[in-house]
Amino acid sequence: MTETDVRHTGSEAPAFPQDRTCPYQPPQAYTEWRGESPLTRVTLFDGRPAWLITGHAEGRALLADPRLSSDWGHPVFPVVVQRTEDRGGLAFPLIGVDDPLHARQRRMLIPSFGVKRMNAIRPSLQGLVDRLLDDMLAKGPVADLVSAFALPVPSMAICELLGVPYGDHDFFEECSRDFVGAATSGEADAAFAKLYQYLHGLVAAKQAEPGDGLLDELIARQLEEGELDHNEVVMIALVLLVAGHETTVNAIALGALTLMQHPEQIEVLLADPAAVPGVVEELLRFTSVSDYMVRMAKEDIEVGGTTVKAGDAVLVSITLMNRDAQAYDDPDVFDARRNARHHVGFGHGIHQCLGQNLARAELEIALGALFTRIPGLRLAVPLDEVPLKAGHDAQGPIELPVTW
Length: 404
Known about the structure:
CATH 1.10.630.10, 3-stranded antiparallel sheet
């Protein structure tokens, strides 16, 4: 295959990303991009062409390839969302930097997100989920499952893990929502500034009076010993706080919605508690809350017989990789009994989600308890009336009215 054989070349390349019309299905146009070629050409909002990787095997290989860069601070790093076009060279820790800086930052945090530590907080998570369900049931239907349940579960969990006062949750949830959902770079900068100042003060307060959260550990182990400076601790805290609840809120809400629309699959979850982790993995594959990952080629790379040139924008489609028929039988079918291992819902390679063990614990406990306690849970509005987030954001419902 030569470059001219790739679908959607030149001016024909369609816009990316696009909005979903069904909460858990890819946008209609995406179905046209699946085929023999593992990549296609798309166009970003500013007119820049980009390669969209759609093949599961090719995507996993590229996400582990050091020739692709995640350096947001690079002057020609691709901009997918208009609100980030004036980033001023700002590179966020962990998610927007390359090795060796990325490896250094990640190495400091890995012990705090290990399976052993996540298992230790499961009883606390279970208690939190039970209290939220008690409150929701006491108030009775109709309820917004996002604000009543999906949002407070990860919000409380990440506050407890980091050592952030949950009493401030309304403030940082609003800042986070304004930051990731801003329409312009000015709005995003304003929300970022408020959140940065809050965390700047919190880190200073913890230096004076240490606690026992992850931030306190970073301060004691890394800041005081000179491995991190104050700004880097604040920025790591910001990334963890936003990422630690933003995607999981959507995953809980979208997972619940998908199950409500496939009631026969709820029986798999209810029949055997040991089946819950497998159901969660299939939901992560099927819903693909993170629709894509952004990269830039540092060198020429051959992909499926096509040359991706140095400097090219590369978007790895998590949604289409998870729906690749070469990787999964009947990929567009939600099958709670499927072995969905090797999905890329958490990404792949060195930037694979650091908090995936926490997210899995939250999803397993939240969804298992939700349908055990309220097996008759159902949508209170038609599916097409559920308001959805835009295609350039983490995928999920803005509100989710439910009844029982």
